Amino acid sequence: MLQKILESGRNLDFPSMETLLKIDKMRLFGQLVLIYYSAGIIYSFGKDALIYGFSETIYQLYKKALSTSFKAFQTVPGTKSLIDSEVNKIVKGFEEKMIDSASKNGIEDTLELPIIGFDPEKTIDILEKRMNEGHIDWKSGRVSGTVYFGGLEHINLMNKAIGIYNITNPLHPDVFPGLRRLDAEVVSMVLRMFNSPEDGCGTTTSGGTESIIMAVRAHLEKAKKERNVTNPNLVAPVTIHTAFDKACGYFNIELIRIPIDSKSGKVDIRILEKAINKNTIMIAGSAINYPHGVMDDIEAMASIAMKKGIGMHVDCCLGSFLMPFMEDAGFKIPKFDFRVPGVTSISCDTHKYFVCTEWPGGIYASPTIAGSRPGSLIAGCWAALVSIGKEGYITSCRNIVNSRIKIQQGIESIDELEIIGEPICSVVAFSSNSSINIYAINDAMKERGWGLSVLQHPPALHIACTALTVGTEDVLIQDLKSSISEVKANPEKYSKGSAAMYGMSASLPDKAPVEDITKGYLDSLYST
User: Per UniProt, what is one Pfam family of this protein (predicted)?
Assistant: First the structure.
């Protein structure tokens, strides 16, 4: 009997030992892959929960799940085309507005090189007419920011200085040694303005965005060289300027965004410190930030930076020629500049020169992203600094900040509005604390000739006060009250425009359609 069983067993088609090993290896590989991805998810969740808290991390996961579901929903036949249709309507509206604002003066478009060049009179005539296109009169002081010093005498001086240096280029200091001196003097004046140490240095750039990009690059190179950081991250508040997103995108740096305190509008210091790790190259704060005009706790942030052995950049682009003069103008503010231990860069960053000795064109050195730069702008900057002088900047600072205070007090007297954060300098942001859509109020203000800045997260508006704003405060407050009454009386009239676009942005779980709209807006800038 046993013999028969053994013989029948020999005839069974059992898998070989080699096959069994292969199956076990495949199972093991699958399990390892599952463990790997599970561990990654658990690690990511744990890290975020440690920094942001359990409930906030769960909420962010919920938002990601909604976004994924929305993307899946767009694969349903007809859904994507419906969304694209709505996006195209908004983009078409941008194009029509751009073309409409440029066609009212009757000037023909110049889309090709003229066969025979225009004479000087015609050239200047076209330029002057196009300067007056549009419906918002910036000279009236009704525009948030944009033009920060509008005196005719000052403008004429700038034009003359720029005209003298209009063919110069700081890339060639041997050809234009006088321009090199102007550039060096501008940097020196600004360094002293921000109480730089004796060994401080800087450079002039094309603007705030390039300055921030240079600051990030400098801290990245320092971290690579001194700490061998290969997977860099940068820690900053959610209110930090979007130029940091651009810089991190350029250099493959993870931007860790830290929430702000709901009352003060300043970055949450406790969460910020938790977010810093061995790969953090720097932290960044604002003095003041663009959205709400709030200054982060720079002293606390710089102290953390020193303790962690990393850099600390202060983005002072918006408050640059106000913040350094606040104390002299009679306003008490916390320290934010190079007097604060741990602050390593402000606006124009202390950085190395980019040097490339292997370039076929010869040894090439340039202090900024751009090689060639218009020397005329450096000359114009120098002329502005020396003509206005310290006393001029102090007076301007006092007038502008007092203007912001007056506007803030007026907004606080309006029941339907509330101030966001704790404004300290020239910017005041406000939102609606009622059922009235703040973006609808903005559309009504546009009809009254105002160009306020639109914000989101939360929905809000702000005005960045300038020298031109001084004297318009009462009119602004009265127009705000009238706009609120108008929106209350005609809600349907103001259900479109920016109210519709920003409302859609807030309601969509996936921001891809919003990104398409912003790309469409950029395209519309080149409509003719």
Answer: Pyridoxal_deC
